Amino acid sequence: MKKLLSVSLATLAFAAVAEYQPITVGVTTIAPTTQDTIIPVPYTTIGSSTDVSVHDLVKAANLPNNTMLYYFDGTNYKAWKKNSSGAWSTPDISATIGSAAVSAGSTEIHVAVGAALWVSFPSGTTLNEQSIVVYGSPAATTNSTVNLGQVNLLCNPSTSTVTGEALATKLSFAEKGDRIRLIAADFSGEYVKAASGWKRNTGTGYVNTTLPSIASYQGFWYIPKTRSGTAEINW
Questions:
Q1: pLDDT of residue 24
Q2: What's the per-residue H, E or C state across 111-175?
Q3: What is the dihedral of CA 102, 108, 112, 113, to 10 degrees?
Q4: Among residues 61, 56, 101, 112, which one has the least CA distance to residue 79?
């Protein structure tokens, strides 16, 4: 009996080892150059292909206390704050950014691969001493889904610059009146889709132009002329 029991236990142990599948975790480190930094969402939930919880995607522990993390849902912002315990907390906040309301986020808010988040460092932060670490399960693709009925905050999640010519091809779904606005840019950072090609806003008028190149991890707004449906940017 003891011999049979030993064989059975050994068989179960072997089966458990054979079925084990290691979990792959991807890590992206971003060096901020401005107090407000747009970051990509290149990962899903660890060990899963589901959308990741916003506050699980960005490592809080290495960031300065009071660093803010924002997610734009197409209409308003949800916010988290780095606390003294080294984690993201839900701040008591009621504010606006532009015309958009800002309220506390939660663990229930998830974000899809290809979207973007906004990290805002406290005033006086020495940026060259900081790094933003994003981690999760690597996704099969990092396509960005563009909701054509709302404003979209996007970011180039690839490690390569996308040229203006390539970007225009990737935006083949664009219709007349759609706009691209670069982050922290003046009028020269706004582009509008024309009947043929794109035009740039000079502040006093529009001139024909090519689209700007979008660097790796560079964020921008995509503002469609409101219509229904979604489109994909294949980075």
A1: 86
A2: ECCCEEEEEECCCCCCHHHCCEEEEEEECCCCCEEEECCCCEEEECCCCCCECHHHHHHHCCCCC
A3: 100
A4: 101
* Cα–Cα dist 111/109, whole Å: 7
Of 97, 24, 91, nearest to 55 by C-alpha is 91
In Å, how far are 81, 133, 139 from 112, measured between CA atoms? 21, 17, 10
Q: Does residue 134 contact residue 57 with C-beta atoms inside 8 Å? A: yes
d(C-alpha 201, C-alpha 196), whole Å: 16
Q: What is the pLDDT of residues 73-96, one digit of tens each?
A: 999 999 999 999 999 999 988 899
Residue type, 81: K
- Tens digit of pLDDT for each residue in 44-81? 999 999 999 998 999 999 999 999 999 999 999 999 99
Pair 94, 163: CB distance under 8 Å? no
Whether 224 contacts 175, CB under 8 Å: yes
Spatial distance between the Cα atoms of 235 and 167, rounded to a whole number of angstroms: 9
Q: CA–CA separation, 79 vs 86, rounded Å?
A: 16
Amino acid at 89: S
Please give the model's pTM, rounded to 2 decimal places. Answer: 0.85
Looking at residue 23, what DSSP letter applies? Answer: P
Q: Which H or E element spans position 190?
A: strand 190-193
Structure tokens at 122: 């406290």
Q: How far apart are CA 27 and CA 137, in angstroms?
A: 9
